[in-house]
Fold this protein.
Amino acid sequence: MSPTLQLFLIVSAALFCIGLLAALSRRHAIFILIGIEMMLAGANLNFIAFWRFSSEPHQPTGVMIAIFSIAIAAAEAAVGLALVISVYRHYRTTNVDQLDQLKG
Amino acid sequence: MNSGIVTNLWLIPAIPLAASLAILSLANSRRKSAAALAVIGQVAALTSSIVAFLPTLETPGFRASQNLTWFTFGEQPLRIGWVLDPLAAAMLLMIALVGLCIFVFSVGYMADDKNFTRFFAYLSFFSGAMLGVVIANSLLLLFVFWELVGLASYLLIGFWIERPSAAAAAKKAFITTRIGDMGFFLGILWLYGRSGTLLFYDHGSGCLESAGLAMLGTSATFIALLIFCGAVGKSGQFPLHVWLPDAMEGPTPVSALIHAATMVAAGVFLVARVYPLFSLGAINGVTPSLTVVVWIGVTTALMAALIAIAQADIKRILAYSTVSQLGLMMVSLGVGGVAAGIMHLLAHGFFKALLFLGAGSVIHGCHHEQDIRKMGSLRRLMPVTFLTYAVGMMALSGVPLFFSGGWTKEEILHATAHWPKSQVPYYLILAGVILTALYMTRQIIYVFFGNPRAASEHAHESPRVMTMPLIALAFCAIFFTVVLTPAWPWLHTYLTGDPALHFDSGRLIQPVFFVSLVLVTAGIGLGVLMYRRAGLQNRHRPAKTDPLEYAQPTLFHFLENKMWLDELYDRTVVAFAVVSSRVSDWMDRYFWDGLVRAFGGLGQLLGIFTTDLDERGISAGVDETTIGTRRIGRVVSGWHSGQIQTYLGVVAIGMLALLLLYAWLA
């Protein structure tokens, strides 16, 4: 069976959903970050899949977008982890349930 | 059959990596299965290494590679692969065998540790990553495994993460090697830009074969030097050696693995692997890049040997001796003795693993005391450890005739003496050989001879699971000699690919043999003279002063503090990073923030002017609206739980609703 576009889309949708589930259900801020990274990975896989099955797979456009997006994800992870550390220093917890200062 | 072996070569690193994953999925309490899985994985890797070793024996200079396309980037396919040649096969055997001994030893050494399973998962991972480095036929694949080795060393050095010093040492090792890897990566990019391929051997068009090399031209020197940066970081060469002695914070089997079979061997191996890049355009065997390798190696070898004399921690002395021996190997590679350098790497793998495991046994027996000044007289209490340690010590010092280290060191001396560019490295290395014998004699006198001191009174011999690997490694260190002597230089011809020579006892004694003999005797004799008394004095407390400290206090403190290099880096590199982060903090806080505030102030000013208009004309109408808005606001603010995950959930539901709407409309 040769891989089809649908197959890749299913995998990427699955990745996205798993990431979303993690981001929604985990209580630890770092696991939420991991979930977000997985959602990003799913989106990247979509980019690559659509590029690979497009009419011009020889132009490395999809890969370039994915590489940019990976670089941005790396920067985001760095910022996110720094935020987690400073949140921890401030509140002495990384449990997002207890961080409800925005409560209206 | 041979082609089948080459196509399945990837299994060798894959087996320990798979074992590592399997162990990670085990529960923390299943200690026996974890150890069994790790050892079985390593035995399987050793068996397949032996199978892979056999075809390389048949033809001199055997080389076979298997390449495949990883992915296609536009028009450019990115290809990776693996290669089997004498260099890879010999390294595979050494890593798998030494690794196995260390794994078995760890079963005893780590028996009481609460994270026993995690430890074996990391060990298997480490071993698998290193086996991958050895068989990689693409610089990119090599780099991937290279970084995995770095990650594994980080995890293992910081294994006792609850100790702040271990966490700091792990971080230091990771960051220091990363500095070198930055250069390595730039070198890879440059090489790819010039030659368009990262495969080493590809039926004539790889980057180490003549066609690929011809495309490089003069840039080969810079590429080679950039790649050498990676080797400097990994193999603990000056000026990036500072992480290696700190890496002693890890458990002792890890130190043995890092210092003998994996990690530091990777740097020397890398230089040997891409040697054609270094020697491109050589005149008389000398190129600018090789000259740099020689001088870095000489500096490292001598500096580390000097520092080792003034250390008191049993593992730290061995750590500096590793740095020094790695420098020696680099010199050998630089002067053109590639085979000699690799032979010393292989022999060093055996006897340094032996020494580290012996040190582990001593530490285990002395209830985790590492200060050699508190030991003494252990030869009576730990006879097996003493005998095997003595074998390792003599191999490291380079005692000729029966010990592998002696012969390989002679080869290196021989190669260095014939370097056309300068004789200085040769004489400096001779000094290094004396120093090596001296500090090893010092260590062995303090630990095993003399009178018992504080830590050695309740010492005991280690269990059999720990002494058996020691005995095995001691036998390796001695019997490895058979293939090293000039009388039957089998390993040398095997590595260089020359046809094998027949046994001829007339070649056994070369002039350099006597040089080596004299130097080692001088070193050991000097050691016995200097430290004989130190071992006897101070029955129940640590020897207060070292004889050298007594005679030359300033020099001793200079060496004891590692030539103040850590402090120098602290004051320069680290201080620079701290200052620049302060500057950017200040910029952010005052400059950019100031700009923002200035704009805000402008807005406020405007606001003051328009207040009047607002209050008189528009306010009245707005007030009514405000009351309404407030009511709505109160309702809406009730929805704000402050729980970030609720918000995210609502966003997700909204997105889903939009998607459904879209699907319905279409």
User: Anything to note?
Assistant: Residues 68 and 74 of chain A are 10 Å apart (CA to CA). Helices of chain A lie at 5-25, 29-52, 61-91.
